[in-house]
Design a protein that fits this description.
Number of helices: 18
GO molecular function, one term: 4 iron, 4 sulfur cluster binding
Bound molecules: S-adenosylmethionine
CATH architecture of the largest domain: Alpha-Beta Horseshoe
Structural class: alpha/beta
Pfam families: HemN_C (PF06969), Radical_SAM (PF04055)
Strand content: 15-25%
Function: Involved in the heme biosynthesis. Catalyzes the anaerobic oxidative decarboxylation of propionate groups of rings A and B of coproporphyrinogen III to yield the vinyl groups in protoporphyrinogen IX.
CATH topology of the largest domain: pyruvate-formate lyase- activating enzyme
CATH superfamily of the largest domain: tm_1862 like domain
Organism: Longibacter salinarum
EC number: 1.3.98.3
Helix content: 25-40%
Shape: globular
Number of strands: 19
Largest sheet: 9 strands, mixed
Oligomer: single chain
């Protein structure tokens, strides 16, 4: 039976039909492939010197994507899986911003400053917890250090709680043109259980202000699998979000890993929906968003309006993927600032120190704040190209990979082809003499297809750190 069918022709054929039998079979833990290899393979042998070297190797042809991690939040959401810190002390935030600015200056010593910044993303934590003045000041500093492309895509994550129109005005003045709001769920009972009481009126204001101040794209984040959710209650959240009509929607599966995130123990497991109910929520939300909602399923957790540039890029085979998720900006090196930030250069990935005192100490020494990383090998490059083509464009042309890397595709990927056989038998993947194609029916299981090409998974057969798809 077919799990998923999707085509842009009419709103009816756009609907993604979720076959729960297939979902049950393919719903295994696996990486999200925002990079290959993935972060669990980073090693502390890769130091700030290696990062500095990799930065200085980039040339003016390769554009830059800047990520700034702003970890602070006003209160703790019990489900949160991000690197964040609750603080109510303005001086703590002010101090951090001073260090992030200094870090940009340190990195700039190694970067060819003719390189154009085509993308900026502020993630968190809660970037909108900064004051309007701090938003303007941090961006002014960033622009004084780097050269921005006039068409740069500049986005931030924001929390509708505590947000004012002045925040949106300051962000628009600073050049932000995209914003992503955390909604999660509109049901008061769920909100209570996750310690995030957020009347819908706040989200409505946030969306209205963003439109008034000229943001060209609004994303709303939803999370399913939260305590007390059922497919009936979450249907109200889907209704609300569709009424607000954002350009993009992220529908995340709640990753409950209390062993890694202690505060998640504040959510009693007995309150979480049963696995079967969680699957039903996923099915309902996916089918409604792509059916009556008319959203295109981009891949992984992402949906976009058919005229949004992500949907257009999907149709034209121009989608890309980096630590920020799907993007239309090709081949940019991601340089990250702030504690725990992950940089992604062509030849190396690095992650910054996670604790504030250690991060500050490094910057005080005038050094980059790298604490671990990964130097990409030749084999990684080949597999990365295949995995990213699959994740983004559902199609790998064997001749393209052969000419880019001077390899014999079939000889190199014999075991990957064997691993793909169940998906081929289920009609989710087609392998021909020329290509590997993920069929529309297989797009929900795209990371299962990518996993077949992952040398690290196949070597260890252990996936303890990864969450399931649904
Ligand atoms: C870093 S948060 C930024 C949002 C902002 N801090 C706010 O509160 O609105 C980005 C998104 O990650 C998602 N998220 C956080 N923890 C998660 C978890 N444990 N499982 C799944 N998604 C999660 C939420 O949807 C959240 O909006």
């Amino acid at each position: 039976m077919r799990a998923l069918s999707s085509s842009p022709a009419t709103s009816d054929s756009n609907t993604v039909h979720v076959d729960l039998d297939l979902v049950r079979r393919y719903n295994q833990p696996g990486p999200r492939y925002t990079s290959y290899p993935t972060a669990p393979h980073f090693s502390e042998e890769v130091t700030d010197d290696a990062f500095a070297q990799a930065l200085s190797e980039g040339n003016a042809e390769t554009p830059l994507s800047l990520y700034v991690h702003l970890p602070f939040c006003r209160s703790l959401c019990y489900y949160c899986g991000c690197h964040m810190k609750v603080t109510h002390r303005p001086e703590v935030i002010e101090r951090y911003l001073g260090y992030a600015k200094r870090e940009m200056e340190i990195a700039a010593q190694y970067i060819d400053l003719d390189r154009r910044v085509v993308q900026v993303h502020w993630g968190g934590g809660t970037p909108s917890y900064l004051t309007p003045e701090q938003i303007g000041d941090l961006m002014t500093h960033t622009r004084s250090v780097f050269s921005f492309d006039p068409d740069a895509e500049i986005s931030l994550e924001a929390d509708p709680r505590g947000l004012t129109e002045e925040h949106l005005a300051a962000a628009a003045d600073a050049g932000f043109n995209r914003i992503s709001y955390g909604v999660q769920d509109v049901d008061p009972k769920v909100q209570e259980a996750i310690n995030r009481v957020q009347p819908t009126e706040l989200v409505e204001n946030a969306v209205r202000w963003a439109r008034m101040h000229g943001f060209r794209s609004i994303n709303l984040d939803l999370v399913y699998g939260l305590p007390h959710q059922t497919s009936e209650t979450f249907s109200d959240t889907v209704d609300t979000v569709m009424r607000l009509d954002p350009e993009r929607i992220a529908l995340f599966s709640y990753a409950h890993i209390p062993s890694l995130r202690k505060h998640q123990t504040l959510i009693p497991e007995a309150d979480l929906p049963e696995p079967e109910e969680k699957l039903r929520i996923f099915k309902m939300a996916t089918e409604r968003l792509t059916g009556e909602g008319g959203y295109r399923f981009i891949g992984m957790d992402h949906f976009a309006r058919p005229d949004d540039e992500l949907a257009v890029a999907l149709d034209t085979g121009n989608l890309h993927r980096n630590f920020q998720g799907y993007s239309t900006r090709a081949g940019a090196d991601v340089v990250a600032f702030g504690m725990s930030g992950i940089s992604q250069l062509d030849g190396a990935y690095t992650q910054n120190i996670k604790g504030l005192p250690d991060y500050y100490a490094r910057i005080d020494e005038g050094r980059l704040a790298t604490y671990r990383g990964y130097e990409v090998t030749r084999d990684d490059r080949v597999r990365r190209a295949v995995i990213m083509e699959l994740m983004c464009n559902s199609l790998v042309l064997k001749a393209d990979i052969e000419s880019r890397f001077d390899i014999d595709f079939d000889a190199t990927f014999t075991s990957a082809m064997e691993a793909l056989e169940p998906m081929v038998d289920d009609g989710l993947v087609t392998v021909t003499e020329d290509a590997v194609r993920v069929e529309p029916e297989g797009r929900l299981f795209i990371r299962n297809a990518a996993m077949a090409f992952d040398a690290y998974l196949n070597a260890s057969q252990k996936r303890p750190l990864y969450s399931k798809t649904v």
